Amino acid sequence: MTAASEVKPRRAVLEMPEYHPPLAGRELLRLDFNENTFAPSPKVIERLHQVTAEELTKYPERESVEAIAAAHFGLRADQMVLTNGVDEAIHLMCCAFLEEGDEAIICTPTFFMYDVSVRMMTRGLVKVQADETLEFPFERFKAAITERTKLMFIASPNNPTGAVVSREHLLALAEAAPQAALMVDEAYSHFDGESVIGDLDAVPNLVIARTFSKAYGMASLRIGMLAGNAGLLKYVRKVSSPYNINGAALDCLPVALADKDYLAWYVEQVRVGRDRMMAGLRELGVPYFPSHANFVLMKIGPKHKELVAAMRAHGVLLRDRSADPGCNGFVRITIGIEEHVRMGLAALRSSLEEIGWDRRETGEPAGPQPGEDEREFE
Ligand code: PMP
């Protein structure tokens, strides 16, 4: 038996929430985690095969790859920090800018890691809940800013809603809280949405996070980035390990960035697949939130768990988002390559029938979906 330890963690660690995504048993069609469902660029795979023994024995060197990534985005090297995914970027932002008593603002529902990382540092997490449209609650978010606000996290497009926040609104929030860093999480920006990366020079408290886990298909390599004001990023660098990104990921990033054709191909697959999915949902009478990302959030109602189980039996994984605030009965489906979208839709059609789903269970009126006329089925 292990002896009981008297060592106690920090109070914040006792109180912070835990994030345990359901990662086991995923050898099926993965439409649950918003990953690329296919592959990274073939050039990335080629580069991985060239990794040498010597490279593996060396500590990874981040700086030269940071310069390449910065140039790719039209930035200077000191405006770029590479991170171990956006997860680490969020954590480093909290380590650098939050202390107990400070406030950080997020809107909910959103990506859960903001909650985890903020609460590691302070009790001052302020959550602004979206209304039933799940659009970004700009006015209420702005009204939540106080002199204690030190960080604001906004995902655009947002997860799990797929909603975007306009550039105008983002810049207005940065201006309204000059004492706070605004981290705009552009993890899904390839799929739609206006980037604010062109505003970095003009807005000193703006920081942008990007990931190579989604459109680039490298989730397992764990690499993301923070771009922003050099004066802010120097503190992020200070709290980061110099070896936070493994050498294989650093080797692959320049290759992935250079293969623009592959990225364009994958993004187009998702755009076409997303239209197909939304048209399919309309046809099935499933209410959904028009999405700008590589997933669609739909409203199932009380049978949400049954649907996820039925889809699993058909070999397709979905993500139940019912525990998210304002999302009871909601389920999210990832959009991947066209073939996977087709398989997902076919499984959805069968599963809804098997569980005896009826649109009336969602509390939505029968009839057409909002935005029905705006989207063309291809
Ligand atoms: N931001 C958002 C909005 C996300 O949805 C996710 C992934 N689920 C991440 C960041 C994490 O990205 P990464 O793999 O780069 O850590």
CATH architecture descriptor of the largest domain: 3-Layer(aba) Sandwich
Distance between the termini: 62 Å
C-alpha Rg (nearest Å): 21 Å
Strand content: 15-25%
- Helix fraction bin: 25-40%
Listing every helix as H and every strand as E from the N terminus to the C terminus, the arrangement reads: HEHHHEHEHEHEHEEEHHHEEHEEEH
Main β-sheet, spatial strand arrangement: 2-8-7-6-5-3-4
Overall geometric form: globular
Main sheet makeup = 7 strands, mixed
**Ligand kinds:** 4'-deoxy-4'-aminopyridoxal-5'-phosphate
What is the number of strand segments?
13
Total helical elements: 13
Q: How would you describe this structure to a colleague?
A:
The chain is of the alpha/beta class and 378 residues long. It folds into two domains: 4-35 and 261-362, Aspartate Aminotransferase, domain 1, CATH 3.90.1150.10; 42-259, Type I PLP-dependent aspartate aminotransferase-like (Major domain) (Aspartate Aminotransferase, domain 2), CATH 3.40.640.10. Helix content is 37%, strand content 15%. It contains 13 helices and 13 strands. It has helices spanning 11-15, 42-49, 53-57, 63-72, 85-97, 113-121, 138-143, 167-176, 230-239, 247-258, 260-284, 304-313, 338-354, and strands spanning 29-30, 80-83, 103-108, 124-129, 149-155, 181-185, 206-211, 224-228, 288-289, 295-299, 316-317, 319-320, 330-334. It has a seven-stranded mixed β-sheet with strand order 2-8-7-6-5-3-4, with helices on both faces. Strands 9-10-13-12 form a four-stranded antiparallel β-sheet, covered by helices on one side. A two-stranded parallel sheet has the order 1-11. Helix 5 runs parallel beside helix 6 (113-121) and helix 11 (260-284) runs parallel beside helix 13. The radius of gyration is 21 Å and the shape is globular. The structure holds 4'-deoxy-4'-aminopyridoxal-5'-phosphate. The site of 4'-deoxy-4'-aminopyridoxal-5'-phosphate has 13 residues, from helix 5. 4'-deoxy-4'-aminopyridoxal-5'-phosphate binds at residues 34, 85-87, 111, 155, 159, 185, 187, 211, 213, 219, 224.
